[in-house]
Amino acid sequence: MTRVGRRIAELSILLGPVTLFLAVFFLGPLIIMMIYSWLAPGLYGGVEWQFYPHNFGRILGFADPAFEEFDPVYLSIFFRSLKIALITTFCTLLVCYPAAFQIARLPDRWKAFCLFLITLPFFTSLIVRLFIWVLILRPTGIINGLFLWTGLIGKPIELIYTDGAIIIGMVYIFIPFMFMPIYASVEKLDWSLVRASQDLGANGFNTFLRIILPLTMPGIIGGMIIVFIPALGNFIVPAVLGGAKVLMMGNLIEQQFLYARNWPFGAALAMLVMTAVLVLLWFYVRYEMRRGGDAAVTR
Amino acid sequence: MPESIVRLEGARKAFPLPEGGVVTALGGIDLEVEKNEFLTLLGPSGCGKTTLLHAISGFVELDSGRIHVDGQDVTDWPPHKRPVNTVFQNYALFPHMSVAENVGYALSIAGTGRQERTKRVDSALAMVGLKGLGNRLPRQLSGGQQQRVALARAIIARPKLLLLDEPLSALDKNLRAAMRIELKNLQHELGISFVFVTHDQEEALTMSNRVAVLNGGVVQQIDTSDKIYNKPVNTFVASFIGASNLFEGRLEHSAAGAKVVTAEGDAIHCAATRKTEPVTALIRPEQFSLATANPAREASLDVEIDQVVFVGSVFELYCHSASGRKIIATVPASEAAAVNTASQKKKARLGYDPAAVHLITTKDAEP
Amino acid sequence: MRLARKIGNAALAFYTVLFFVFIYLPLALIVVYSFNADPINMMNWSGFTVEWYLKILGFRTTISETALYLESTPQLIQAVKNSLTIAATTTVIATVIGTSTALAMYRFNFLGKQFYRVLLFAPMLMPDIVLGIALLIFFVGGGIQLGLKTIIIGQCTFLISYVFIVVSARLAGMDRTLENASADLGANEWTTFLRVVLPQLTPGILGGALLAFIISMDDLVITYFVAGAETQTLPIFIFGMLRRGIKPEINAIAVMMLVFSFVIASLGLYLRSRRR
């Protein structure tokens, strides 16, 4: 076999499995889902193969009343999901940034140990980590228990099954995701720039605002993306900590598939989430491309 | 005291070593930087010159001692409050800001209005020869240009003192030579003192009003370039600056003058002196010559030639004396004929003027 | 002035300690609570007991409600078995495919390489619920019975990406000149691969495999949608129990899972640091 021929054969062998697998089990299902979102729901579950834009109409408002009713609740759930995801993202950022900043400046041994401690919970089961918060936040949980015991309140307050509970749960879970990119960014920071800023008269606050923050921005943005996307489409955390009361897009979609059996509608809802994610990613890619090289100009 | 812009008293700093113990970076330094002077801190790596610079700018806290800038005690002041600016060794230009934003940074922090700021930025850029490049990003500039941006950025706030931490060491030779002149001119133009750190002695000697030679955290000598070169106070300074031939021995006095006699028997004639203690005589290589214009006035040393190296404008003669002591002599290219003869014969008689021989008192000899 | 800076540093350090407390205190609480005899109120310590653990493990106790809870034990055991089987299988598949993909990207430059990069990152960037239902539609629409097989396939879609990233990172850190040296000394490509590349790559492959295993054991969303009615994995089992009502045994299960994860993760990280 010729040299080129061998290389092609080798490449095919190495790349073949993943190509096949992802094409069939990843791209395929996604395309089918997209198609489903435009189909009509069958009477007893299943689908009817006809062009049916009314799923989207039901969500977005241009429905033909003969087929579907526009129900603004879907949009409100979508926006509520956006809101919760945004708040979660910002809270996680605020929680992680100072710690990442501090740890990145420690001597090497401490750094490695701290990183180990932070990534360790990531490897434990998500459901276990959520379960903990159920125990902590419920009326017979430790927070209410403390408040009752100290006499601050007369009867248990509702902590679980609120938006707040969901946000706490998600922040807790997403900490390792936000921490890593920020940490990487702070580690790469050229501290001579900080000294230069101080030398030129900027105090700590100004130096942070004008030098450190802009230069760690890539890490911040990266972390925000990594947290926002799973937060938006999340259904486990709302299911466990939100109970039946708080619905996010994830729960809605789950309902459609496993209870209401209206798959095309569920697919349409999923498409809404997908679109939001893709838009976000598109902006992110543009931001990354515009950034170019930001390493400190040194020799 | 009113004459000096910076005064250090008893500055001490020690750094702990990871394996225990400390290394003394500054061992009780007293130093005054005069107004409108170009002072160079010179010394080998680890001598403390960079630590000293950082102590003045505020990035190193002294263990003991005080620092005064323009009459004020700034020892406890953080860097951003001190009226001192630094040109960093790696330039440290902010990559996310344009050249103009970099240069105007100090003014922006101080709250200077935009119009005034723009005016001064333009003027600073023009002063360093970078007119019109305000909108570029640092990474789009060459090394030499980046260095000028760092310079402009540091002078715009009209500091009382400018510190330069080996700013020329990454530039190629020609650029360095050009920049040296420019820095010197800049210092004149601005009228503020520059404290310049380098390990390149040529740079130190050519640029400075005064040079402070440091070793082991202690100032060995602080003097004009001329005196540092011709009248070093100890053997460290003598051998750190330029090549040197050192002869340590005892003084013998006679009617004709004095001479230093080494243990191996080399005799170096010098000017009459009242000293009696053991000394080290210093003869710079260029003080030797092969052509004897006036044999009566000059003294001479007989040597055997090991190697002759032609370096363009001079010949370097590597030889040894009768006692085996190594000697370096440099003679101008005009003495080529004599060099030829000498190298053929493998012998030479090196002439020198005893009056120009500098004596270092041995008690100062150890730094 | 120095004082301000010192206070600032101290505040940051204190905050970081709080940070770690926030992460680990809940974990500590749950361990402590699992030994609490009071099954309802966390604050009420009614005595130290290991009965919850015993119940899980199948020992009868004298408490009368025992009979109800023990039903769940065979289900629990089956769920654990399923989880392990699935994790083992997916680990093998994902590691093989992920590693070969990483090798392909490392060795070759070809048209569409960027596309592949995007494709490999996509499963991880996508919200898993979207992928979950897409797979559900795909399997059901294609007439494929939901069960262990579909779970395995579903998990592999993103596990391959994880392994790919870990192995790629390892490859990127490798010294390419070593391969040149090997060739210079007479080894052909295959031999060079076996004797120079592979030994260096092994820690990365093991790391990727370990990561895949852990993530597979832990996966909930994708598995939830493609598992079908009859198959349960451990996370699904617990999720179900959570929805039906908290029972103290969940606490014991949770702690056991925590310990298990900690041991595996520590092992993995320890191996990683040693091999370097």
Give the biggest beta sheet of chain B. 6 strands, mixed
Ends of chain A: how far apart?
49 Å
Tally of separate helices of chain B: 10
What does the main sheet of chain A amount to?
2 strands, antiparallel
CATH topology of the domain at 83-261 in chain A: MetI-like fold
Could you report the average pLDDT of chain B, rounded to the nearest whole number?
A: 88
Percent range for β-strand residues of chain B: 35-45%
Q: Which structural class fits the helix and strand makeup of chain A?
A: mainly alpha
Question: What's the shape of chain B?
Answer: elongated
Rg value of chain A: 24 Å
User: What pattern of helices and strands is seen along the backbone of chain B?
Assistant: EEEHEEEHHHHEHEHEEHHEEEEEEEHEE
Please name the defining characteristics of this protein.
A: about 300 residues, MetI-like fold, two-stranded antiparallel sheet, 12 helices, 2 strands, about 5% strand, globular, C: about 280 residues, mainly alpha, 2 domains, about 0% strand
Short description:
The complex is a heterotrimer of chains A (299), B (367) and C (276). Chain B has 367 residues and is α+β, with helices and mostly antiparallel strands.
Topology:
The complex is a heterotrimer of chains A (299), B (367) and C (276).
Chain A lengths: L2 H34 L2 E3 L5 E5 L2 H7 L11 H33 L3 H12 L6 H12 L4 H9 L12 H25 L3 H9 L4 H29 L3 H6 L7 H10 L4 H29 L8
Antiparallel strand pairs in A: 1-2
Helix pairs in contact in A: 3-7, 3-9, 5-7, 7-9, 8-9, 9-12, 11-12
Chain B lengths: L3 E13 L5 E13 L3 E5 L6 H9 L6 E6 L2 E2 L10 E4 L11 H5 L1 H6 L3 H14 L15 H13 L5 E5 L7 H18 L2 E6 L2 H7 L2 E6 L2 E7 H6 L4 H6 L4 E10 L2 E6 L4 E4 L8 E5 L15 E12 L3 E8 L4 E7 L3 H10 L1 E6 L5 E4 L6
Parallel strand pairs in B: 3-8, 3-9, 6-7, 7-8
Antiparallel strand pairs in B: 1-2, 1-4, 4-5, 9-10, 11-12, 11-14, 12-13, 14-19, 15-16, 15-18, 16-17
Helix pairs in contact in B: 4-5
Chain C lengths: L1 H32 L17 H7 L8 H5 L1 H36 L5 H13 L2 H14 L6 H25 L3 H9 L4 H30 L2 H6 L7 H11 L3 H28 L1
